Amino acid sequence: LTAVDGNGFWPIEIAEYGSYQFEVRRWPKELDQPITAGLPANNNSDITVLGKPVIIGEGKAIPAIKVRLKVGDRLLESKIKHSDTMVQFDLNLPKGETEVEAWLVDGEGNEKQAYYVYIRKIKEI
Questions:
Q1: How far apart are CA 8 and CA 10, in angstroms?
Q2: What DSSP assignment string belongs to 20-47?
Q3: Whole-model pTM?
């Protein structure tokens, strides 16, 4: 995989016992692009530093074939299609603090950390 290296986790607190939906993405929801897709450089940035626009470089395509999600001690995995913009996992979770990690995995088992994980409560249990 040729995405930016980065390892880490997101500490989260589950406010109450219930069913939660985890949506793992490479690109933010607003872009709605496939996990494996590259993106062109952005030459029209509205972000500036010292009065000059910040030019965002090209996003490289990656050969991911699955997404892996770890919530606490639970490890889940799902295969992806070339056109998938995200992978969704539904979990029943107890109240309390935990950690979330997510990776994009290629055919050789190489991992790169996923950049976006959206979490929402879907129902009381």
A1: 7
A2: EEEEEESS-TTT---TT--B--BSS-S-
A3: 0.83
Rg (CA), the chain: 16
pLDDT at residue 54, rounded to an integer: 67
63 by Cβ neighbours in 10 Å (0-12 / 13-18 / 19+) ranks as middle
CB atoms within 10 A of CB 67: 24
Dihedral sign (CA 86, 102, 68, 23): negative
Mean pLDDT of the chain: 89
d(CA 122, CA 20): 5
pLDDT digits (tens, 9 = 90+) for 84-116: 999 999 999 999 999 999 999 999 999 999 999
Q: How far apart are CA 35 and CA 80, in angstroms?
A: 9
Burial (CB count <10 Å: 0-12, 13-18, 19+), residue 105? buried
